[in-house]
Amino acid sequence: MKCFSCFAFLVMIAAAFAWYLAGGARLADASDAGCSLASSPSGYGCDPWSTHLYVSRGIAKNGNTLTLTVVHNPEYEGNANDTRVAPGHEYFQQLTVDVPFTTAIRDFICVAFASRPGGATLDASSPTFLTDVENHPESSLLAGPVSDGTAHVNNIAAVCGTSHLATVVAPRLVAMGMPVLADVALAVPMTPKPQGFVVGTKFSAWVARGFLYVDEESELSPPIMATVTAVQ
């Protein structure tokens, strides 16, 4: 864990100890418990509570804009050793946001994870794609514009401009041996509080990719600016 000063480190340890005595946290990811985060948006690793995680429930490309429907649910945050939700995360919210769809963002989300290098690109147009790739239809590119529980395979080409997905080596995300289609999320800063967002609010965030219930936010894009178009 990086720290900004010895004093800040001691304050952080004291706060964490007090939190532990109060009952700890609660939660979801196995990998986060082992500090798999390469770098946290807050400036240090091993801190899955450093941002609000908004998991995708719909992805659509409209010209140079990517429209994401995302949900905040504290059940998706934290790690497997947590027992309670960290302060500030105890809320549920759904947002629809627009973010600039750059080449960097396209290349970041249009991927599948593999256990080792050397794998070929994956073709979503293959009739066996859904059985060849471990996937979550509701939180990946398969969701379509709004998740309805159906795997919308054609949405991959609609968003990525091709049915072919590059593979990224990430053994920690591959449990079944087969490639894993990336789940997509937003990592939203703790301040300003997202509960205060309204239509038209602009905020800085990071696009996150990973695999739900394993590690959703170990890889983050460069910062992007999102605009809220709907709040529920």
Written overview of the protein:
This protein has a domain at 47-110 and 137-161 and 180-231. It contains four helices and eleven strands. The chain has helices at residues 6-22, 103-109, 129-132, 154-160; strands at residues 52-62, 65-72, 93-100, 111-114, 122-123, 164-169, 180-181, 183-188, 202-211, 215-220, 224-231. The strands form two sheets. Strands 1-2-3-11-9-8 form a six-stranded antiparallel β-barrel. It has a four-stranded mixed beta sheet with strand order 5-6-4-7. A hairpin with a 2-residue loop joins strand 1 (52-62) and strand 2 (65-72). The N and C termini lie far apart (35 Å).
Write a short abstract of this structure.
With 232 residues, this protein is α+β, with helices and mostly antiparallel strands. It contains four helices and eleven strands.
Beginning-to-end CA distance, first to last residue = 35 Å
What gyration radius follows from the Cα positions, in whole Å?
18 Å
Give helix and strand order, one letter per element, not per position: HEEEHEEHHEEEEEE
The number of helical elements comes to: 4
Helix percentage: 10-25%
Oligomer: single chain
Question: What does the average pLDDT come to?
Answer: 79
Strands side by side in the biggest sheet: 1-2-3-11-9-8
Runs in which pLDDT lies below 50 for 5 or more consecutive residues are 1-45
Q: How many β-strand runs?
A: 11
The coarse silhouette is: globular
User: Main β-sheet: number of strands, strand sense, barrel status?
Assistant: 6 strands, antiparallel, barrel
Structural class: alpha+beta
Estimated share of beta-strand residues: 25-35%
